[in-house]
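Hey forum,

I'm writing up a methods section and want to include a predicted complex as supplementary material. The small molecule is 2-oxoglutaric acid. I've pasted the protein sequence and the SMILES. Can someone with a working setup run it? I'll credit the forum in the acknowledgements.
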Amino acid sequence: MAQPGIKNFIPRTFLAADEIAAFETRGYHIHEALFDAGEVSAIREACAVVCDRGAYATGVAPDVVYWKPGDDPLAVRKIDNSWKASDVIRDAVTHPRLGHIAGQLINAPGIRLWHDQYLYKPERGGKTVTWHQDWAYWQMVAECETVTCWIALCDVTVDMGPMVYLAGSHKHGLQPLPEGISGEEECRPENMDGEEVVVTIKAGQVGFHHGLLLHGSGKNMSEIPRVGLVSHTISTACTYKPGQHHFNEDKMKEQPTIPKPGERFSGPQFPMMWSSDK
Ligand SMILES: O=C(O)CCC(=O)C(=O)O
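Reply by user p_vandermeer:
Happy to help. Structure tokens for the complex are below, copy them as they are.
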């Protein structure tokens, strides 16, 4: 498949048994670079075109734009499903490299994109991202067979407000939703032991975490923007459970065929990334 901006690099995607076992125990896996320097640069530029210029090469807007040119330059720039606006972003967030690894981590028959999220935390800016579990916001996905893939589009150092995982917290089940997803102060859930793992990774590396893993991040105290692109993924076995609202539900209802409650997610809103039966 032609991959604009993403062409030649062939990274390792087969995981060793001990890497999968560590994910089961700790709830996360940090992989060596899955995108090379040229790919990172192409993806980062594509994200900047969509976010900073508000230009959509495909003619289709992202699903949710939380920040647009002219808004507070110190606020986090966040956009959901910019894959719809850019083929380079689509190829990155739906890449089989990510799907293959996510599929092995949760032993899924296949992997689909749930949604992507561009996150640009400006230098000396941004807010704290409160400790949370991703699946808590995705209760229309009946099964917690989800993996978030956080693609670093810059080297992320400790002073840049990196992601922080609470190792093993995915074993404690679903926690109440935090009152707000961002704020000024860190707020760790009470009575929750575990090692805090600060995800300082290089550009092109990817952090994978389980849908129940508690995680958050601090402000960017550095002089360099922290730039990441997130591919939130689900197993192809995941089914639709109405109840909690999510923008994907509205978008799904625009599809020619809409999954009924209890049926698997399908259709163009949820692009296939990888399948084990190839
Ligand atoms: O990048 C961040 O600081 C938070 C991202 C996050 O919560 C996620 O990718 O699930």
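Some notes you might quote in the supplement: The chain has one domain: 27-267. The chain has five helices and 13 strands.
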